[in-house]
Amino acid sequence: MKNSLKSLSHIYIIMCIGSTAIAQTIPTLENAVYGGLVKTQYASSVNWMEDGEHYSKIEYNESNRRPEIVTYSAKDQSKEVLIPYNMLIDKASGKSLSISSWTLSPDNEKVLIFTNTRRVWRYHTRGDYWILNRKSGILYQLGKELAENSLMFAKFSPDSRKVAYVSKNNIYVEDLASQTYKPITTDGCDTIVNGTFDWVYEEEFDCRDGFRWSGDSQYIAYWQSNTSGTGWFDIINNIDSIYPTIQRFPYPKAGTTNSGVKIGYINADGGNTTWVEIPGDERNNYLPRMEFIPGTNKLFVQQMNREQNTNKVWTVTIGQDDLENIFVDKDQAWVETNNHVKWLKGNKYFTWMSERDGWRHLYRVSSDGKQVIPITKGDFDVISEVGMNEKNGYVYFIASPNNATQRYLYRAKLFGNGKCELVSDASQAGQHQYNMSPTCTWAVHTFSNAQTMPIVEMQSFPAGKTVRTLVDNSGNQKEWEALGLQPKEFVKVKSGDWELDAWMIKPVQFDANKKYPVIIDVYGEPANSTVQDVWSSNMWHQYLANLGYIVVSIENRGAAAPRGREWRKCIYGEVGTFACEDQARGILDLARQFSFIDKERIGITGWSGGGSQTLNCMFRYPEVFKTGIAVAFVSDQKLYDTIYQERYMNTPQNNPEGYKKGSPISYVEGLKGNLLLIHGTGDDNVHYQSCEMLVDELIKAGKIFYQVSYPMRTHGISERAGTTFHLRKTMSDFWTKYLPAGGI
Questions:
Q1: Apex 123 CA angle, 169 and 689, nearest 5
Q2: What's the whole-model pTM score?
Q3: DSSP H or E run through 324
Q4: 288-317 as b/e, with b when 16 or more CB fall inside 10 Å?
Q5: Cα 669 to the chain's mean position, in Å?
Q6: What's the CA gap between 588 and 597, in Å, rounded?
Q7: SS3 state at 56
Q8: Tens-place pLDDT, residues 192-246
């Protein structure tokens, strides 16, 4: 069967049960990589309009296939063309603008269109912007004399008269009436970054758009980063020319010097910047969030210390010397940034998410910080906020008090007693997702679980009643079920006194009387979780299972699961140590529960943080884990960036033992099994340096291992022709060679 994988698009197995023959289609490697065996439909992106009753989409005109912007009524699905295709044609070239995204001006008279985009690290945030006047039909390009594809984060002033944007680390303001623009900052260069961010703020704080308009449209507040003094990392490109080229960027590694980051404001017509004198060393404190309080010229700034265990909220009014620290949130481990802070009762209160009572809850804080009142209460975590309607007095949020693998919609009164009520249909066990309108009167609701493809509906609120189905996937669901593949089964395993969530997938021809090898797919870091009762159309796990493996994932302590503060933060200062302990104990407990698991054939694999956990497991528990594939891993925690690593570990200077204990490179002497290392040499996130340093230590220790490096591929190892298939073929071949498949 394995030899035929290259030539067959499907493999059919005939299972005889009594006198009935059942044909089953098993996914091949091509299916796992490219899809095509069974399709899953998802709802297209829905962008709610401000009125909360309509949403917009980019569609193509039926007659000429040119793009236009349309709106739909949530109530009856009636369609209206908001911006017809003929208004989106550049008259100079006769070509229609491609539309990556668009924004309507506050006065609804103009449209800002983002097009011709380019990727900056993870996302397409650089490109060209155009303005369309809806009344006159005039369409023109912003900053037309600036370099092509150089504009970032363009946005209207509140009075709709101007647009500000960033180009080459300077902020520009363009007057829409005169179509003239000028830079209001001029010191931007390779080391001074205005209006956007350096690599580490973008990656770890999700900071990209680095400026804000004041409520009166007179000022712009912005971040400035000074990267001089920060270590610069070089990525060498050896494959695109006969001489290597070098990509350089500032990257502060754990315990080293950060960029100096500060916040200032400047008149939108230009002039001198006034810097906000927030106390503290700008290289040893972070400013991850800054907004204007709605309708005002008062800034609301979050400042974290370098240890990230204290978040101070500061306010300051443009043109006034009234800087005030109004609120402080603390934790013995770490705190998170507060996103989507909402203001209530005419700015008398703001909302705040905190774990101060041992669970993540939403609070109402008075504008002077003296009152901190819970909006939600109970022994459960608020996972995320979905919507808030002050007029109706409710906040909607996602939680799952009884099952950490699932997600449900709840609501609570903004000015109530903390009582929370379930809104989702409890009979639909799995994960519920909502894209809610600004008025919380409508929502696009998506339900799925590990066995059920997504069902997408338009629902009306507050009742949560379905008014129409947008995507049902019923036909695709039948095709999936006809394949006869084994379902993802959720189980519990023990690690000492801790109960862990896990899942497993068995081969199609599974025989409980035989013993099967196991492949554990691990992540294990505090940034994510893998054991989720939600639909995934990824066929890779099914492909591996049907080679003859039981595929397993175990959620170790410290993973980002809604199980309370103690669960998530017990790993503070020891990231990596508890994870591999839980993986080893967990799989042995699973083997005790199920006799069909072969304890002599246990493999483990993971990507990024999961690659690090794979190495820790292979090196520290060689009697358990016999084969491993580590992809894009951190071998030494000192090699990763300041913000992420120090959040969970403090600095290497303050926690040298923790860094040593958590880093796989400390334990290379323990390797006994078969190990494959995979890394992209162009990885800007987890540098190829991490792989080379580990390789050097393995060689010193006389350890035999295998390695595949992908030239100039980044952290996802997906760029350039043939990469993904080659990667997965390499992995599957390694498994079948060094962890023999099939029941015995």
A1: 85
A2: 0.94
A3: strand 324-330
A4: bbbebbeebbbbbbbbbbbbbbbbbbbbbe
A5: 35
A6: 9
A7: strand
A8: 999 999 999 999 999 999 999 999 999 999 999 999 999 999 999 999 999 999 9
